[in-house]
Design brief:
The complex is a heterodimer of chains A (305) and B (251). Chain A is an alpha/beta fold and 305 residues long. Chain A contains 9 helices and 12 strands. Chain A has helices spanning 18-34, 45-55, 74-89, 110-123, 142-151, 171-178, 197-210, 215-235, 279-286; strands at 9-15, 38-43, 63-66, 95-100, 129-136, 154-156, 162-164, 189-191, 239-247, 250-257, 289-294, 299-304. The N and C termini of chain A lie far apart (43 Å). In chain B, 63% of the residues lie in helices and 1% in strands. The chains are: A alpha/beta (305), B mainly alpha (251).
């Protein structure tokens, strides 16, 4: 299990027992520590306690990150890991991380988190980080365990060797396959717009106030909406229509432009770096979710607050 | 479930029914620190309603078995956020030390907590500064603290705390699920920038034009527009910045 890569490596293994998880993780991390690499363990409190004991004195050389509250939505989890890796890379030239796969119990979200693993392959692929995701066979549904083979190029096999996954899928292709069709939201109302960001914000603010959105959340939407509207002005030839309202209890804002739009399911998920835009990244960080799709009205970016 | 369709009566009934169970979960988080029981209860109610929207009876999982995960998760997020290390400026540290000294002297002299007005008069701080410092310094009374010192009692301070906030505000709690992020955003602004944004976009008050705000502040409308532009840029940068995990690190 040696590391000589300057870019992201995203591997995985499945474990049946805590002892197996700890033994494999410790061996992986210790090899990195001996080579001068940084080390990260991301798990819930219980998992961290297991690793702290298994690492012994080496636990002080590894950053233990409690992810109990990180996995609320993929964009937030990606940003949290990105921040952790940037911090570690200030102390070491490269980093090894063992991250336990976490998710909520709702089956409707399983695909979203499998998609998150696919995104991870590219989200910070410019960083010298070797991430090994660990999957608890006794706690995770088969659908998620199957997803592991589709989202990790290499998986730990017999004898502690990394073996290529025959089922690995191109992340973008997998995301397109898993993404649900955007819902038709007839309850949204159209509002007058101008090709001016300040006028857009003023109108959006009025709608947010009318829907009794709390001030702090309204500020979120103003910033996220500004990013999306700015993209429509810059790349979409101008704003054709703005639709707002409540759906499923959430405030929703759609910005529709007449341009060709984009067809990249990873848009806004790639950590900001030189040469990439940050607009959709910002929107995804602030919103509950962001969808993009084509309709007869035009290219639509839908922000769920 | 009736709550799926946003039936307010059903939501109210659900919350009332499960408040004791949410309170029991909150007590596990309540051992001191900066997190108040009312805040924990609100987050717990948010978790409950979130679960109610997603609960699928076909899973054959008892509702509370499912919902308790989300209640706990919502509280964990709040605790993780609120107990993160707070970085204070030198000025704030001095202010806090001053507040603590005045409070200690007052307690010794009068045997009672000083009022905010007394603290303000003795420290020279205004109300907003005081509130801000006290919020940082606040340590909740342990909810596990026995109500009476007698042996054999099981009642705790937490059992006596009413939760009117949780009952009153649950209609908007779903919006609060990720409000922690927003707190970071607003923190990026200084007082004047906040004032301008809040006034211009009518947050918590009727919206005002840049000219009106400018004349109130003794500045031109153009200058207000520039300040707002800079403020929006600050918010953008704050949102783009990956969150630090310092507060969640276990060392």
């Amino acid at each position: 299990m040696s590391s000589d890569s300057a870019a992201l490596r995203h591997h995985a293994f499945v474990y049946d027992a805590d002892e197996e998880y700890a033994a494999r993780s410790v061996a992986f991390l210790r090899e990195g520590l001996e080579a001068g690499e940084g080390g990260v363990v991301a798990h819930n409190r219980q998992g961290l306690a297991i690793m702290r004991e298994a690492l012994g004195p080496d636990a002080d050389r590894v950053t233990l990150v409690d992810v109990g509250s990180t996995y609320t939505r993929p964009a937030r989890a990606l940003a949290a890991y990105y921040g952790t890796f940037l911090g570690e890379l200030q102390k070491a030239p490269s980093v090894r991380a063992v991250a336990d796969f976490q998710m909520g119990p709702a089956p409707g979200e399983w695909d979203e988190w499998v998609g998150y693993e696919a995104i991870t392959n590219l989200a910070y692929d410019h960083l010298p980080v070797w991430v090994v995701c660990t999957y608890n066979a006794n706690a995770l549904p088969d659908r998620v365990l199957d997803g592991m083979w589709s989202t990790h190029a290499e998986v730990l096999g017999e004898g502690g060797r990394w073996v290529g996954s025959d089922h690995f899928e191109d992340p973008r292709g997998l995301l397109r396959r898993l993404m649900p069709e955007p819902e038709q939201l007839d309850e949204l109302r159209s509002c007058a717009v101008a090709d001016d960001l300040e006028a857009f914000r003023e109108r959006l603010a009025r709608e947010l106030v009318a829907e009794a959105v709390p001030e702090a959340k309204a500020l979120d939407m103003l910033v996220a909406g500004t990013e999306v509207a700015a993209n429509a002005l810059r790349h979409g030839g101008g704003i054709e229509e703005v639709r707002v309202g409540r759906a499923h209890g959430r405030f929703v804002c759609e910005v529709i432009d007449g341009g060709g739009g984009f067809d990249d399911p990873l848009a806004g998920y790639l950590a900001p770096r030189e040469g990439t835009g940050t607009g959709l990244w910002v929107a995804r960080q602030l919103a509950w979710s962001v969808e993009s799709f084509h309709t007869q009205r035009g290219f639509t970016v839908r922000i769920w607050l | 479930m009736a709550t799926e369709g946003g039936d307010q009566a059903a939501c109210r009934e659900l919350v009332e029914w499960f408040l004791p169970a949410i309170g029991a979960v909150a007590r596990r988080f309540g051992a001191g620190g900066r997190v108040q029981r009312g805040d924990l209860m609100q987050e717990g109610v948010a978790g409950l309603l979130f679960a109610a929207k997603r609960y699928d009876p076909r899973m054959e999982t008892p509702f509370w078995g499912y919902a308790s995960f989300w209640v706990r998760k919502a509280m964990q997020e709040l605790v993780a956020e609120m107990t993160r290390p707070v970085a204070l400026s030198d000025h704030a540290v001095k202010g806090l030390a001053s507040v603590r000294a005045v409070r200690r002297r007052h307690l010794q002299a009068h045997g009672a907590e000083p009022t905010t007005a007394q603290l303000a008069a003795a420290t020279g701080l205004n109300r907003a500064q005081l509130d801000s410092l006290l919020a940082v310094d606040r340590t909740a009374r342990s909810l596990e603290e026995p109500l009476v010192a007698d042996e054999g009692t099981t009642a705790t301070f937490g059992d006596t705390v009413a939760d009117p906030d949780a009952e009153r505000e649950y209609e908007q709690v779903l919006d609060r699920m990720e409000i922690q992020t927003v707190r970071h955003l607003a923190d990026a602004l200084d007082k004047r920038e906040r004032l301008i944004l809040w006034r211009h976009y009518g947050l918590g008050r009727p919206p005002q034009t840049l000219s009106t705000i400018g004349s109130d502040l003794g500045l031109t409308a153009e200058r207000i527009r520039q300040i707002e532009k800079d403020a929006l840029q600050k918010l953008r940068e704050a949102a783009a910045q990956p969150p630090t995990t310092t507060g969640r690190r276990v060392t």
